[in-house]
Amino acid sequence: MKFDTPATTNPIDQLKVVGKPVDRIDGPLKTTGMAPYAYERHDVAPDQAYGHVLGAGIGKGRIAAMDTAVAKAAPGVLAVLTTLDMPRLEKGQMNTAFLFGGADIQHYHQAIAVVVAETFEQARDAAAMIQVRYVREPGRFDLAAEAPNAKLTSADSGEGSGAAHEERIGDFEAAFAQAPVTLDATYTTPDESHAMMEPHATIAAWEGDRLTVWTSNQMVAWGRRDLAKTLGIPAEKVRLDSPFVGGGFGGKLFLRADAVLAALGARTAGRPVKLALARPLMANNTTHRPATIQRIRIGAGRDGRITAIAHESLSGDLPDGQPETAVSQTKLLYAGANRLTAMRLAVLDLPEGNAMRAPGEAPGLMTLEVAMDEMAERLEMDPVEFRILNDTQEDPEHPGRRFSQRQLVRCLREGAERFGWNRRAAKPGGHREGRWLVGMGVAAGFRNNLVMASGARVRLDGGGGVTVETDMTDIGTGSYTIIAQTAAEMMGVPLEKVAVRLGDSSFPVSAGSGGQWGGNSSTAGVYAACMKLREAVAQRLGVNSAEASFVDGEVRAGNRVAPLGQAAGVDGLVAEDRIEYGDLAKRYQQSTFAGHFVEVGVDAATGETRVRRMLAVCAAGRILNPKSARSQVIGAMTMGVGAALMEELAVDKRHGFFVNHDLAGYEVPVHADIPHQDVVFLDEVDPISSPMKAKGVGELGICGVGAAVANAIHNATGVRVRDYPITLDKLL
Ligand code: MOS
């Protein structure tokens, strides 16, 4: 089904099941520990051996020699495979770093060997017995030091496209020079780790030349394609199964060393192999959110209207890497006739930087929305009013191109009202409760709404049950549930009559879970398949599908009523389709919006910040399930607090690695850090986005939160911190 005209009234609009805050259908499996995560698939292949991955102990250079004799002779060892045993493997289409093979070391903890043994302990012990002789080379590990060597780039420049440029509208420099009120400030955001609960883990088994991997991956079709490419085998020979993913946040978008080395280890040992990347490998072996250095300049008239806005961002990555697109929201969030955005990319020899929850906007809003607060202060304007004054209903870089929906002003007004914004002291440091300096902060939230083609297969059985199959993943987001809700709504059956099967590469290719496109796009794919099934049902029953209604397990047309299952016959009835998107995404700017409000207390003596209250008001199209959507947003708000106050991969700039590579050293907020969170969804439908009229929301929740925290800290203390996270030493 091609979606290329705005959605009109359709079966989803009944909202009997969709739009209801139903519990997760996979909830009991998860809370009882019965949901099979990758490492726990004990039943899928007999005789599983254990793999353990050894990471390189240098940041840059090559391996001169490896001695595996002692490791191979160690108890229980079945196979030792080193990176010197094969040439450098091709990397997947989506990978920046090479995953295995050859003597060259691109980054610290790059996989250099896998040991397969009868037990986990034997594999780990033997890996420690491998002797490696390295030749170190000097590496580029310091982003600021590499700034002069950075190259202008663009997000989609790819290799050799030559598209890198500054984007300019009007004459920024002239307008900025003339503006009576200006800000020119530089901010830094650190490298951050996805730090999801479930590590990267895979069980791999070969049957002849056919490979099956039970793994943890957000994008099944990409993973399958890239695994085949890396191993040099046809994609048809690979099956990838990822029905439950214990968190990803972007860290599991692409193929990683666990899948490659489980497959290679299994082939070498002649046994199925299970392996998980040890927690310390996750920071340096896989991927992270890259650090940025961002310069923002804003000029405004005394009336508060922005006349000039510039945002330049520097980030680093391995050769052939991509920039952190931290300027993307600045192209779209506020009006202003004269504009400049630019990204620069430095080559670094640190581990691969790549997408982490709301790549681009999360670190971009961390700085832009603090800059907006600084401007409001200079203008002596309320920061809510300053943002509202500079709202725009059209894409500021493409006049006349409208947003499909844009309710930022309502988000801010409603948030201010609910949060009690009028109680905020206009002057910083103006509110003290005992030892606590108390302040409130606001930020706009913005995240683009991306749409992706997505397929599904639906089967109707004689009992009126519906089974949905798609390779969509559930990374803790609620995919199982919203897909079941969609099929139930479309086919007119109660939720209990729907079974959902996800994550298997033998199912139709879906949008996958990434970029907050998964919820809207994957359910739209199910919608398309169900439309086809409805037609097939009508045909079998000999009624006109346009006149048929599907309600309460029955098909009704004119004065005919038939149980839905009757159309299934003995063999069942199957329909498969795929939603594809036309040019609506180009004709309209599709984005999601939020108003984030935060109250903090800062200890006047120690500088410790405690978040006291948080509120997010979100405008993100139709909310398919307010309960799972709320969970997404409060999780994202929590992550935003992490970005503001705690999260930072500490770079060892001499040796080139992230030092705090575990959950003891990499701090994230816990429940005690987050006393009270509220989420409000505006009642919105977006007929431009899909037949579901929904949009993404899982990444919107983090966008702007960190800045709201930083702005609240400034309101509490008068201290403006531009280098994140705001640890207490920066407030003293
Ligand atoms: Mo998201 S960073 O595209 O999983």
From TrEMBL:
Question: Which residues are in the Aldehyde oxidase/xanthine dehydrogenase a/b hammerhead domain?
Answer: 32-138
Xref: Gene3D superfamilies: Aldehyde oxidase/xanthine dehydrogenase, a/b hammerhead, Aldehyde oxidase/xanthine dehydrogenase, molybdopterin binding domain
In terms of superkingdom, the source organism counts as Bacteria
| Protein name per Swiss-Prot or TrEMBL | Xanthine dehydrogenase family protein molybdopterin-binding subunit
